Amino acid sequence: MSESQFRVGGVSVFPVSCRCEDAGNMTTTTLLDTELLYLTEEGTSVATTVGAVDSTRLSKGLPVRSPRSYARQRHYPGLFWSATTNDHIPYESRLELDRLWLADFDRQVTWISGQPMWLSGRDGEAIRRHVPDFLLTSPDGRLTVVDVKPAEFVSRPKVAVVFAWTRQVCEAAGWQYEVWSGEDPQRLANIKALGATRRLQMFGPQDVLEFDSETGMSFADRYRAWSESYEAAVAHRMGTYQRAETTFEEITDDVGC
């Protein structure tokens, strides 16, 4: 099945039909036949399969659904401003927000997509449909599919079977798969504190002068020192935020917020 496109307007959730396969253990062939629906950067809906999808276009796609909001809901959805994408990424819970902070700080993540695709396919006698929480792109173009779930829910049978199927699909496609349930609170607090430097355009000339006088090293030189072997410029949208990861482990044991 090659990629097919159709324009949609104002729709955030899309129905996905499933190809019927013989019941039984899933092979790589049937896993690659898993149907996949995503939205391009331009908002075009693309219906394809895991084996035929254009990974580059998928990685930059728009969310296939919007976070739900209703009275007395137990989760806290919202939008996270990302220095990696220079745009907002939707999240559906505070735990998902924490995972976004980590991804945005990670120099091995060059792009982040939220609610990136609908997956639909046969798993034995069952038909599975699932929207992973995030899709992360590495510098070499490799993709990591991320599902975020509290640890106490991961082992629940209904959740476990969906995650197991999703892992099989990702492995067949050559993607990494991660089920994430939390991070060390101190490390996460430090990353959020460092997040104040994510947007260098927010620093005024006086801020830069004070930084120079206090450290004995210019703002630009310190920034380049943090970048290690990466070329960096003060105008780079990442600011000191991601580059500070090179010295982060030196301070994380002593600094908490």
Description:
It is a single chain. The chain is α+β, with helices and mostly antiparallel strands. The chain folds into 2 domains: 4-180, Trna Endonuclease, Chain: A, domain 1 (3-Layer(aba) Sandwich), CATH 3.40.1350; 197-251, no CATH class. Helices cover 33% and strands 21% of the residues. The chain contains 10 helices and 11 strands. It has helices spanning 28-32, 55-59, 94-105, 151-154, 157-173, 185-194, 205-215, 219-226, 239-243, 245-251, and strands at residues 4-7, 35-39, 44-49, 78-82, 87-91, 111-114, 118-123, 126-130, 134-137, 143-148, 176-180. The longest helix has 17 residues, at 157-173.
Q: How are the strands of the largest sheet arranged?
A: 1-3-2-7-8
CATH class placement of the largest domain = Alpha Beta
Structurally, how many domains make up the residues? 2
* Termini gap: 51 Å
CATH topology of the largest domain: Trna Endonuclease, Chain: A, domain 1
Helix-strand pattern: EHEEHEEHEEEEEHHEHHHHH
CATH architecture of the largest domain: 3-Layer(aba) Sandwich
Give the low-confidence spans: 5-25, 223-239, 246-257
Largest sheet: 5 strands, antiparallel
Label the structural class: alpha+beta
How would you describe the shape? globular
Range of helix content? 25-40%
Radius of gyration: 21 Å
**Mean pLDDT over all positions:** 76
Number of DSSP E strands: 11
Question: Strand-residue fraction?
Answer: 15-25%
Total number of helices = 10
